[in-house]
Amino acid sequence: MIRDITLGQFYPADSVIHKLDPRVKLAGTMVFIVSLFAFRAPEAYVVATLALAAVIRLSKVPLKFMLKGLKSILMILMITVVFNLFLIPGTPVLRIWKLTITQEGIETAVFMAIRLVYLIVGSSVMTLTTTPNSLTDGLEKALRPLKKIHVPVHEISMIMSIALRFIPILLEETDKIMKAQMARGADFDSGNIIQKAKNMVPLLVPLFISAFRRANDLAMAMEARGYHGGEGRTKMKPLIYAKRDKLAYLSMLCYLVVMFLASRSGLVERLLGL
């Protein structure tokens, strides 16, 4: 399960998506996520599916690698579906003991499951095709106008960069600790949920100690190198929009227009009516 988490990992490839400005990928991810919640019509989700498939194809990142990250949220996905199935009132479809499944509950559960899956996969496209440094630079430059109201943009971007860098390191450290403890007779799989939670306690203690040690080493290294924040610092590779970035922004606008038109078309309802 630890190895299935792809958040914070970068997949090197020579693709159009990899070459895009990180600000474009940040904006594209936000547009995609907002569109999933702004449009609920089935036609809109067909458009979102086609758009996501096209971006994954252009990124040259294997689909299996992206879907691997869904294993880590499988439990959350199941809980979301179950709660929506049984707790949303409406037209009864099936009754199990004292619980009733409604038509509205099924529709909401399906839409919520699709939203959650698409949200994770869409975000994974951004993180898998963008290095942490590029992502931090893009976020800092995109939020630069907030400096006028004294928002610590550079510090926020630096914290995000450090967090993204630490995720794969801590996952690798967790895997090593688990293997070491399993070799000494530890069992993390047997028992009920409460017993499994208790079995994780010996794993968390050395993991927290390792994380604090790494954080202390990083702070000492930054202090030794004279780090004083973002004022006056220059970039070795400044971000400059290219022609492909402008075309990407135009594609986002076209995507939103098509999503809006598709959600108002009612094509699925007419087909079901026939």
Key terms for this structure?
274 residues, mainly alpha, two-stranded antiparallel ribbon, 12 helices, flat
Account of the 3D structure:
It is a single chain. This protein has helices at residues 16-19, 22-38, 42-59, 63-67, 74-87, 103-128, 132-142, 153-183, 193-199, 201-224, 243-265, 267-273; strands at 92-96, 99-102. It is mainly α and 274 residues long. The protein has a domain at 1-130 and 241-274. Helix 2 (22-38) packs antiparallel against helix 6. The longest helix has 31 residues, at 153-183. The model has no long low-confidence stretch (mean pLDDT 81).
Strand order of the largest sheet: 1-2
The gross shape turns out to be: flat
Q: Please tally the helical runs, counting DSSP H or I stretches of 4 or more residues.
A: 12
The gyration radius over C-alpha positions equals 23 Å
What is the mean pLDDT? 81
- CA-to-CA gap between the ends? 46 Å
- Major pleated sheet: 2 strands, antiparallel
Specify the helix fraction band.
55-70%
Structural class: mainly alpha
**Strand count:** 2
The portion of residues forming beta strands comes to: under 5%
Provide the succession of SSEs: HHHHHEEHHHHHHH
Low-confidence stretches: none
Structure described in brief:
It contains twelve helices and two strands, in the order H-H-H-H-H-E-E-H-H-H-H-H-H-H. By secondary structure, the chain is mainly alpha-helical. The chain has a domain at 1-130 and 241-274.
Reconstruct the topology from this structure.
Layout: H1 16-19, H2 22-38, H3 42-59, H4 63-67, H5 74-87, E1 92-96, E2 99-102, H6 103-128, H7 132-142, H8 153-183, H9 193-199, H10 201-224, H11 243-265, H12 267-273
Antiparallel strand pairs: 1-2
Helix pairs in contact: 2-6, 2-7, 2-11, 3-6, 3-11, 5-6, 7-8, 8-10
